[in-house]
Structures are given as structure tokens and as C-alpha cells.
């Protein structure tokens, strides 16, 4: 079988046989729709779509692509792969934005889902590459977990980019997939690895379509959790996850994400706590304190730290407060602090010193503390 070549290139020889699939169509419900939003993706799209063709999934599968006002050769690459994929029994649905202006990733993903028909949705970014067993293994997991977002482990490209983040993605325990949802890393299973049922996707309610600057995956993930959704990771590396300056992630402001994280923390955790300690008397801990609602600021009984200079100061004065006298929050050593804690110390940055200190307290994550780092 011939492979569709890069735009402007010649077709190459196929490297591996594609297993026969039942034809999708009348009497054959599509099991999995691979959802690919595209915007000016010609550099990576060939490899991405080839990875759809190389899936070893033997049930019915379709590709649903939405081209969001690309101005490069993306449309031609999609058309080439449509022929190759349909020859292999994978129908291809192509939608496009009639406007010359892109409507954004959230809109493109929603449109790709709406025009598809699969019982399950497999999300794939146009700059990433699936391993051949991805759809099969995630489909097996999703059947057992109808209300879950299913993720997987990833391999970062280039390998030395975002090392801490990649380690975090790949090594969270099953419990931490739900307890570490408040950190600056975002969703505990990353969006390009998501796999879920179509029914659950629409129950959660689609992606935010605000466009550039909106963290649509984070907002969807938070809604998913608020509706009782679960999170599961297939512990195999099933995606080559690319890092490059053009990635849509870079268009979201840190302040926007911070505000969403704080509100989510207040809603999910602080609403049921009567008091708590912020672990970090430095910049990040104080920033969290200032970002809290007035009612939640009143619940902060202390800051704790290991830095003797900060501890010697004795307290933090909230100068921006209109209260008189201004609130003064005690600062103490972490061993003298009272749980529960909201921890504003970054993980995996202190050569294990912070993790060791935390471990000595014999606390339970998700009950005695949450990370907000």
C-alpha cells in the first residue's frame, strides 16, 4: 500500500501492513472517531495522519479533521491522506472554516466532534504522532470506564524540552490524577492524549470557543471533574508529544490560568475547609493568599517555610487590605504548622529536599494537603 507523501513530495513505500477493518457505514456503527483540529500544520501533518493510518485497531474507525482557516498546504495534505485512509477502510470527514480568520482550537475541536459519528473520541493534535497501539489500548480502557477521560504516557520531542513536566505527566499515581489537578501543569492527563466516550463529552458540554488566549482544555477538564468525571492513564507511551514555539498553549496568559486554578481550588477544596496553612512564605504563597476571596483569606491560619529569615520575621502583613488593623498572618517552621496545607512549593526542583520534608509529616495527599505549585 502506498503512503501519501508530504505536500509537494512523492509517495513513499508503506512500512507496515494495516490490519483489515470492517467497513464503516450502514449497519456498522463507527467505534472510534480520531479528532484532529488543524491550523497551518503542514510541517507536522503528514506524520500525524500517517500515525492514524498505522493504528493496529481492528474495529471501525474514522478520521474527523477540521481545518480552521489554514493558509499553508494543510488542505492538500489532508486530501492526499483521505485517499490513503479510505483505501484502508478508514472514512475521512473534512470540515473547514469558511472565513479567512481562524476561530480557535476550541471551536475547531468542537466542529470535528460534531461532524464525526464515533461512539468514542480520540483527540489528536496535528503536530503530534500516535504510536500504533494507541487507539486499541485506550479503547479497551474506555469501555471499562464510561465517565472517564483516558490519557496515556508520552515521549517529548525534543527530548530535553520540559523535562520536569514530562516526568510529572508520566509518573503521577492513580490517586494523584485527581489530587494534583490544581497545579500550574494543568490537566493531569494532557489533552492531546484524551480519549472518552462521545456521550460523556456532550454531558460535560464541549470546549470553550473563546479563541486565542482561552485555556479550553483546562476549562473542559475542570467541568469534567465538577460533573463527577474520573481520570485514568494507560501506562504505556502512546504519543510523541511535540514542543515548539507555534503551539497554541503558548498563547494562553499565565495570569488567566492562575485565576482559573484559584477559583477551582476554592470551589473544590477550600469551600469545605474551615482553616488551613499555606506552605511557602515567599512570593508564590503570598500571591495565592492575595488571590483568594476575602472569606478564604480569613481561613489562612499561618504560612510555613524552612527559610529561617522568613520565619524570624514572624508574620506577613497584608498591606493591600482595607481592614484596620491590617491582617497579620503568622509565619512558622513547617514542623510547627497545623494541617491541612495548600502547598505552593514546586515539585522536583530541590533535589528531593522538599519531598523529604513533606514525607516526614506522614500526611495523606488529597486529605491533609493539596499541591498548588
TrEMBL record:
Pfam families in the record: Glycos_transf_2
Source taxon at top rank: Eukaryota
Region ranges (Disordered): 1-26
Domain Glycosyltransferase 2-like: 33-201
Record Gene3D superfamilies: Spore Coat Polysaccharide Biosynthesis Protein SpsA, Chain A (3.90.550.10)
Xref: InterPro entries: Glyco_trans_2-like, Nucleotide-diphossugar_trans
GO molecular function: hexosyltransferase activity
The name this protein goes by in its record: UDP-GlcNAc:betaGal beta-1,3-N-acetylglucosaminyltransferase-like protein 1
Species, as recorded: Grus japonensis
Amino acid at each position: 500500500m502506498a503512503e501519501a507523501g508530504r505536500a509537494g513530495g512523492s509517495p513513499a513505500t508503506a512500512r507496515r501492513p494495516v490490519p483489515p477493518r470492517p467497513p464503516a457505514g450502514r449497519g456498522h456503527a463507527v467505534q472510534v472517531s480520531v479528532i484532529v483540529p488543524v491550523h497551518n500544520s503542514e510541517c507536522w501533518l503528514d506524520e500525524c495522519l500517517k500515525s492514524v493510518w498505522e493504528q493496529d485497531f481492528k474495529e471501525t474507525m474514522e478520521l474527523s479533521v477540521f481545518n480552521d482557516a489554514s493558509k499553508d498546504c494543510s488542505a492538500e495534505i489532508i486530501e492526499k491522506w483521505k485517499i490513503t485512509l479510505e483505501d484502508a477502510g478508514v472514512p475521512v470527514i473534512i470540515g473547514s472554516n469558511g472565513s479567512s480568520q481562524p476561530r480557535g482550537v476550541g471551536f475547531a475541536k468542537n466542529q470535528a466532534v460534531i461532524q464525526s459519528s464515533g461512539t468514542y473520541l480520540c483527540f489528536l493534535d496535528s503536530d503530534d504522532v500516535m504510536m500504533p497501539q494507541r487507539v486499541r489500548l485506550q479503547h479497551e480502557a474506555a469501555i471499562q470506564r464510561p465517565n472517564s477521560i483516558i490519557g496515556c504516557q508520552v515521549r517529548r520531542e525534543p527530548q530535553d524540552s520540559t523535562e520536569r513536566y514530562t516526568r510529572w505527566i508520566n509518573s503521577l499515581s492513580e490517586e494523584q490524577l485527581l489530587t494534583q489537578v490544581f497545579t500550574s501543569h494543568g490537566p493531569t492527563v494532557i489533552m492531546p492524549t484524551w480519549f472518552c466516550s462521545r456521550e460523556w463529552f456532550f454531558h460535560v458540554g464541549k470546549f470553550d470557543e473563546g479563541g486565542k488566549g482561552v485555556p479550553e482544555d483546562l476549562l473542559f477538564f475542570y467541568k469534567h471533574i465538577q460533573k463527577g468525571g474520573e481520570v485514568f492513564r494507560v501506562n504505556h507511551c502512546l504519543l510523541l508529544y511535540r514542543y515548539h514555539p507555534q503551539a497554541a498553549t503558548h498563547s494562553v496568559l499565565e495570569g488567566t490560568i492562575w485565576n482559573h486554578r484559584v477559583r477551582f481550588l476554592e470551589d473544590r477544596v477550600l469551600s469545605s475547609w474551615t482553616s488551613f496553612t499555606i506552605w511557602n512564605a515567599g512570593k508564590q504563597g503570598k500571591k495565592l493568599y492575595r488571590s483568594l476571596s476575602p472569606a478564604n483569606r480569613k481561613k489562612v491560619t499561618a504560612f510555613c517555610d524552612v527559610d529561617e529569615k522568613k520565619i524570624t520575621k514572624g508574620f506577613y502583613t497584608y498591606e493591600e487590605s482595607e481592614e484596620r488593623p491590617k491582617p497579620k498572618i503568622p509565619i512558622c517552621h513547617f514542623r510547627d504548622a497545623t494541617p491541612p496545607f495548600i502547598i505552593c512549593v514546586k515539585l522536583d526542583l530541590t533535589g528531593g529536599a522538599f519531598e523529604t520534608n513533606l514525607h516526614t509529616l506522614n500526611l495523606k495527599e488529597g486529605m491533609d494537603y493539596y499541591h498548588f505549585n
